[in-house]
Amino acid sequence: MELKICEKNKFDIHNAVSNIVFISDLHFDYTEGHYMLEQAQRKEDEFVNYVKQNYSSAILCVCGDFYSDYIKSMEFIEKMEREEIKGFFVLGNHDYWSAGLKSYDEVIEMFEEKTKRYKYFRLLISGKKYYIGDVCFIGDTGWTSFKRNGERVDLEYFDNLPEVKEVRNFSCIDIIERHNKWIEFANNIIATEKKIIILSHFPMIDFTKKSKDCWWSSETKMNVADNYWNIFGHTHKDKQQENNCVSAQRGYKNKREFWIDCGEKQYEASDFGTLVKEELLFNKGTLRTVEGSLLQYYTVINAEKMSIQASKAVRRRGFRRCSANKEIIAMLATSPEKYLIKVKKKIKAYEKNIFIGYRLITKLNGKTLENIYEAIGILEQGLNRKSVINIREFVIAAVLTGYVYNDVPYLIEDESKFRSVDDFDIIRFYLMFLTIQKYGIKKTMIEFMEIRASTKRGFFVGNVEIKLPVINGKCLNVQEVLESMEEQNISNSIQMPVQIPDVKRKVNVTEQVKRIPYSDKKLRDLKADVYMFLVKGEGDISDIEMRLGELKKINEQKYYALESKYRGYDIRQKLFTD
Predict the structure, then answer these.
(1) Are 205 and 221 in contact (CB under 8 A)?
(2) Hey, which bits of 327-475 come out as E strands?
(3) Contact (Cβ atoms closer than 8 angstroms) between residue 139 and residue 199
(4) Mind listing the pLDDT tens digit of every residue in the chain (578 residues)?
């Protein structure tokens, strides 16, 4: 595959760029995470109509994955050209799928041939560049190097990719070669042009956490510079960003026709990313501010008057939040310095949002940035013991920085997706933090986390039961938890009574058993003891008689099943009499 750089192509529509609007991973054939080709045409029409109504004066950049079928993707591109929608596109990995009939080169050749005379919606691939005014546009699928931490990962991780069946002659080595040729071309443009918009389906930066993540992103050798914006997709992490590498990824979240018929909108402005010329920005009213400090992310819940149903809801949502943040809590408990280094690196990407004279319009405004930096400061002070930890501020800071760590800080300002931190979140985070810290459980070691511990390990806050977390089979005891909570003055901080169930009180064994169902384990043990007594004469008859009596009072059905099994024995038949 010889690399050629085309001569300068002037875009016929515009002499200068105004706004640049971008989106990726439209996946028209998916609805709410499921493949539904029959609903694709309506979504496609809605997308085209939305763009025409709202972005007719902008340049639209789409970073691939229209359909999981190369023919359907081509038909969509043809429609965009017919509708005279101005912009550029690159192919995503799904746009090459052909049930194994076509290779990558064959699909690219078909798209090149069909779009070579297009006037409005242009294909970008390695070796081709276009100009609008003084801005150069280049792009490609981009692919992956399959590298992280300076080394290529084991390619056997990717033996079961759908591409193995969907693309003829697919191989990871071929992908690496395509990636390298794209990087060579892109770096040549970066070194020679002053203002560049780069489209790629695959990210050109490394977001990986594990080796198998290298299909989604990887280490690349694309030059880091201030003379471009790189727009990418593929990871399905909506507004994922690092410095001047940005995205607006739709993924598989298309809505069903039912909801559209009920009045909901398939596409909204928040689905798109926007680059606005600096001189036009402040006349648009596009920026907004949020008033307040970290306490704006906190809400008070009165648990003393809470109904049983409401208390269960509070428990469930707390379980979900803690489970979703287990990696963050583990890092704060065992590797806080590494965690804060990563958070600081990621948030710096949002400080500078102006490159080549265009500002990225995001939901993350200046005030939110200040709050995130305040959160980082609170964690640093607490972890370094430079000040007394306020547990409420500490947990709120952990939650906010967690959004940054997971590359979704913009969700902090999305009221439909961000839930304020309440006192029960604070207690649960604190309990998980203590457990992980005490047992030194690294984030890579969290194989199984059971947040619902046994009823013997817990306490009540108001009317809400708090059960101690069990992580990798490890659990604190109630007494040490309460001592730590008292040391941190948590009871006064949350202003709700902490009550401990009376688990130490001695009760008659029979009365205790009567209050709970007879477990299968107890029944199995009893069957074994009865058998040993009847057949081999081993065991204490008085103990077995007492346990049989307990079982009969609790569950007649199980008792008579046991009786019928052993009634035939002649030895000590009085065992089953009243």
Answers:
(1) no
(2) 354-355, 358-361, 449-450, 458-461, 464-467, 470-471
(3) yes
(4) 333 444 455 554 445 567 899 999 999 999 988 899 999 999 999 999 999 999 988 999 999 999 999 999 999 999 999 999 999 999 999 999 999 999 999 999 999 999 999 999 999 999 999 999 899 999 999 999 999 999 999 999 999 999 999 999 999 999 999 999 999 999 999 999 999 999 999 999 999 988 999 999 999 999 999 999 999 999 999 888 888 999 999 999 899 888 888 888 899 988 999 998 865 443 333 323 333 478 888 887 765 666 666 767 766 676 677 667 778 888 888 888 888 998 988 887 777 778 998 888 765 677 788 888 888 888 888 776 655 567 788 888 999 999 888 888 878 887 777 888 887 788 888 888 888 888 877 655 555 555 445 455 666 666 677 777 777 777 777 777 777 777 766 655 555 555 555 444 444 444 444 445 666 677 777 777 777 777 777 777 777 787 787 777 767 666 777 777 776 665 555 566 54
DSSP letters of 543-566? HHHHHHHHHHHH-HHHHHHHHHHH
Q: Of 6, 5, 17, 189, which Cα lies nearest the Cα of 86? A: 17
How far from chain centre, in Å, is Cα 415? 17
Do the beta carbons of residue 343 and residue 397 sit within 8 Å?
no
Burial 42-51 (b: 16+ CB within 10 A, else e): ebbebbbebb
520 residue type, one letter? D
Pair 183, 222: CB distance under 8 Å: yes
pTM, two decimals, is 0.64
Token pair 């880091």 is found at: 224
Distance separating alpha carbons of residues 578 and 179, to the nearest angstrom: 83
Tell me 39's DSSP state. G
User: How far, in Å, CA of 17 to CA of 276, rounded?
Assistant: 9
Dig out the tokens for 552 from the structure. Answer: 């009969």
Q: At what angle do helices 336-348 and 366-383 cross, to 10 degrees?
A: 170
Tally of CA atoms within 13 A in the half-sphere of 564 that contains its CB: 6
What are phi and psi for residue 216, nearest 5 degrees? Answer: -95, -30
**Residue 565 in tokens:** 């099994």
d(CA 234, CA 22): 14
Query: First-to-last CA distance in the chain?
Result: 91
Handedness of CA 152, 153, 154, 159 (dihedral sign): negative
Q: How far apart are CA 195 and CA 216, in angstroms?
A: 27
Output the DSSP codes for 72-140.
Answer: HHHHHHHHHHHTT--EEE---GGGG--TTS--HHHHHHHHHHHHTT-SSEEE--TT--EEETTEEEEEE
Which of 106, 136, 181 is closest to 7 using CA atoms?
136
CB of 74 within 8 A of CB of 58? no
State how far the Cα of 390 lies from the Cα of 382, in Å rounded to an integer. 8
Query: How many angstroms separate the CA atoms of 53 and 36, rounded?
Result: 26
Query: What would the two tokens of residue 236 be?
Result: 């399905």
Do the Cβ atoms of 546 and 510 come closer than 8 Å?
A: yes
